[in-house]
């Protein structure tokens, strides 16, 4: 079977923090690198969560997920959600957040976010895709200068910014 390393090593995608509140109230969140807009009309976005991650287990019991974009100014938030596991600590006790749409956690320390209804789940191997239909979105004031590629505002936090992180749940 062919590997993708020759292709994927050329990529440096944005990293996201995905948060979830299960229908029973349990919260979780993690740093992910596999995500993309997957439809324009209707608007859809897919995030891929590792089966090894606590957030995956909570997301399987959630009706909504919130996806956060980070900038390089949010490195410590990225580190917390990437290196720590909710199996051992309460990540939400260490960050400013508020309940968003349907109680899904919205992190104050992010450039922007959206909450989506979980429309479907897809088996992708060691990751499961969650197809989201947006129902709410927001942008934080400090990120107002970050409008996109080539902008002089804060730069998005990308995979290479996390290259020295030690995953909370190694593969």
Structure description:
The protein has helices at residues 5-8, 54-59, 75-83; strands spanning 16-21, 27-32, 35-39, 44-50, 64-69, 97-99, 105-107, 112-123, 127-139. With 171 residues, it is mostly beta strands. The protein has one domain (14-160): Pnp Oxidase, Chain A (Roll). The strands form 2 sheets. Strands 2-1-5-8-9-4-3 form a 7-stranded antiparallel sheet. The protein is globular and about 40 Å long. The model has no long low-confidence stretch (mean pLDDT 90).
Structure characteristics:
single chain; mainly beta; 36% strand; 9 strands; 7-stranded antiparallel β-sheet; Pnp Oxidase, Chain A; two-stranded antiparallel ribbon; oxidoreductase activity; 171 residues; globular
Order of helices and strands: HEEEEHEHEEEE
Average of the residue pLDDT scores:
90
SS field, number of helical segments: 3
Largest sheet: 7 strands, antiparallel
By CATH, the topology is Pnp Oxidase, Chain A
Q: Total domains, how many? A: 1
By helix and strand content, what is the structural category?
A: mainly beta
Q: In which order are the strands of the major sheet placed?
A: 2-1-5-8-9-4-3
Low-pLDDT segments, ≥5 res: none
- Strand-residue fraction? 35-45%
Question: Shape, please?
Answer: globular
The span between the termini is 19 Å
Oligomer state equals: single chain
Give me the CATH superfamily.
Electron Transport, Fmn-binding Protein, Chain A
CATH architecture: Roll
What is the C-alpha radius of gyration, as a whole number of Å?
Answer: 15 Å
